[in-house]
């Protein structure tokens, strides 16, 4: 967690203590393991009825990651659009490694595995693969000689593998039961000789294996060309020019019996691949190598460093004064200002925690652009709001009331409580679907003009979305942190 990503060759990928010699156990196989239980019956209509699409992802520098508190990634952006097309909310489920993917998919922890997997014949026997999102090919990842900058091109080439035939009797490190291992096995049949396969632990990703080649910890690995090219841009001592396969499909994975979801996804993939939007997203993560390099070398690439922002230490310091953890406070600060200490709203709220001028004056804050002053004032104000909701017995509910009060003003939330009492149509101590519904009603004149409602109109959807977004981001932050 304390590794710094500016340690160029090690911090980006080498996050696990497992060595490449550790063999993969039978239960670590993601999609080919015959012991995985059959799929639950939960298809498109059930997803629509639930209102949530649960997508399983594996974090990485192109697929899914959090940078300066913001959720990003090729798969993530496509998932957002796919869920929106279905008309449901997206819920991200982060897998620590590849070993659980098949099990989690079939037992219903997720509805889809959003990662670029090759649909091999053996995998297709037990799982359904979407129409491909992009084509790739597998390439050999190898390290240039240490003095490569002093050598001429032909001298470098003379010290590298230039054809797969040159891998005979050499060792290549890949995850067991990956498409890379299958390709090496097929390659041995094709060339009629032996390539030694070092099967590494399932919690070591391809990204990390590439990093291990760069540092010299392993000699070779195999990777998809798109991924390999991106890392070769970051690690100048890598060569990824030798192909080991023809073009291959990169697809998402679904339960075998999810025929409705599969049909819908395939139609959607065909449509979106004909849009400019798709290619903007693809280029952002697979072509714009400079931007990705900036992300993964940053101290605030959460997947690697455990850091959300430049202000984590201050957030942790002042979160101690609150009855909830620093990660939730960080999620709120991102919601308020995206960690920009100079952010200013149309209503003149200012700083990391968007303190209103009147609130700043009341709290004695002179400089709301100061990160520490803003966080100190914001947490003090949150504590005041927390104390106003002592009547809420459940701690988690009370936090939601407090956050909503910070956003909309406590008096509007109190009006929502009053409206429930007047209408006798909900539980005044429960946020979800109760106070939420009451706040929505206060958007309409017939409700906010009722006797007993003191503060009138409120744009009810705003505090509802505010609380929802903070909690969703909080859950994602925690999943990434726990996966490290």
Automatic annotation (TrEMBL):
The chain positions of domain Solute-binding protein family 3/N-terminal read 52-289
GO cellular component terms, semicolon-separated: cell outer membrane
Asked if the keyword Membrane belongs to this entry, the reply reads yes
**Looking at the keywords, is Cell inner membrane present?**
no
The protein's UniProt keywords, in alphabetical order, are: Cell outer membrane, Membrane, Signal
Q: Where does this polypeptide localize?
A: Cell outer membrane
Q: Which SMART domains match?
A: PBPb (SM00062)
Q: Which CDD domains match?
A: MLTF-like, PBP2_YfhD_N
Membrane topology listed for this record: Peripheral membrane protein
Q: Which residues form a coiled coil?
A: none
This chain belongs to the protein called: Lytic transglycosylase F
User: What organism, scientifically named, is this protein from?
Assistant: Algibacter mikhailovii
């Amino acid at each position: 967690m304390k590794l710094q990503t500016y340690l160029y060759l090690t911090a980006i990928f080498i996050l696990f203590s497992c060595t490449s010699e550790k063999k993969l156990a039978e239960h670590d196989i993601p999609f080919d393991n015959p012991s995985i239980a059959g799929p639950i019956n939960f298809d498109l209509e059930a997803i629509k009825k639930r209102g949530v699409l649960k997508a399983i992802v594996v974090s990485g520098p192109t697929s899914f990651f959090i940078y300066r508190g913001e959720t990003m990634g090729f798969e993530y952006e496509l998932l957002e659009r796919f869920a929106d097309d279905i008309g449901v909310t997206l819920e991200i489920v982060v897998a620590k490694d590849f070993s659980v993917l098949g099990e989690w998919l079939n037992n219903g922890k997720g509805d889809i595995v959003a990662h670029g997997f090759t649909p091999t014949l053996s995998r297709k026997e037990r799982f359904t693969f979407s129409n491909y999102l992009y084509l790739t090919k597998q390439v050999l990842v190898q390290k240039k000689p240490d003095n490569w900058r002093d050598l001429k091109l032909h001298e470098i080439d003379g010290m590298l593998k230039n054809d797969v035939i040159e891998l005979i009797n050499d060792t290549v490190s890949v995850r067991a039961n990956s498409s890379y291992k299958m390709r090496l096995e097929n390659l041995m049949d094709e060339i009629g000789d032996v390539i030694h396969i070092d099967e590494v632990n399932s919690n070591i990703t391809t990204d990390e294996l590439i990093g291990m080649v760069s540092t010299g910890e392993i000699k070779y690995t195999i990777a998809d060309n798109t991924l390999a090219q991106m890392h070769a841009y970051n690690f100048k001592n890598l060569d990824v020019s030798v192909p080991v396969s023809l073009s291959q499909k990169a697809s998402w994975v679904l339960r075998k019996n999810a025929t409705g979801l599969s049909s819908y996804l395939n139609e959607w993939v065909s449509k979106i691949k004909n849009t400019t939007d798709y290619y903007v997203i693809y280029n952002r993560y697979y072509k714009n190598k400079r931007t990705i390099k900036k992300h993964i070398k940053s101290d605030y690439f959460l997947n690697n460093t455990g850091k959300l922002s430049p202000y984590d230490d201050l957030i942790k310091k002042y979160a101690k004064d609150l009855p909830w953890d620093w990660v939730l406070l960080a999620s709120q600060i991102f919601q308020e200002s995206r960690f920009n200490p100079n952010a200013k709203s149309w209503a003149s709220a200012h700083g990391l925690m968007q303190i209103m001028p009147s609130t700043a004056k009341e709290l004695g804050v002179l400089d709301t652009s100061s990160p520490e002053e803003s966080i100190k004032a914001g947490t003090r104000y949150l504590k005041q709001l927390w104390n106003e909701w002592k009547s809420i017995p459940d701690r988690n509910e009370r936090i939601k009331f407090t956050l909503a009060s910070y956003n909309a003003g406590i008096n509007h939330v109190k009006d929502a409580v009053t409206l429930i009492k007047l209408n006798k149509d909900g539980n005044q101590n429960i946020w979800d679907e109760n106070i939420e519904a009451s706040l929505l009603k206060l958007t309409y004149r017939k409700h906010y003009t009722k006797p007993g409602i003191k503060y009138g109109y409120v744009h009810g959807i705003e505090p509802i979305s505010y609380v929802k977004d903070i909690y969703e981001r909080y859950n994602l932050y925690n999943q990434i942190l726990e996966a490290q």
